[in-house]
């Protein structure tokens, strides 16, 4: 069975308090999320991200730590966040970990290339 969904999990909570805590930590140099850097510019989500995600062959969801169901929470607990997971049947598998996301230095193109290479590798 192939990949049916991709889920990116930010290393931050959703909501006003969660976002404020992340921004404050980022300004102080105590918080960082490589996935945030890829998907967001200074203020909002990158248009380049939205266009890339729309072209991927499977659906992509982006979630914050406080938006996870139990199944996803367990998958993230074993890998840490930020992380990009793929759903294959009834399993979640790590596609890209925190260090890989950091290495992309905010590049949507690098993310796209890495995801496509891994998805193509799984279908061969």
From TrEMBL:
Organism domain of life: Bacteria
Its name, as the record gives it, is Uncharacterized protein
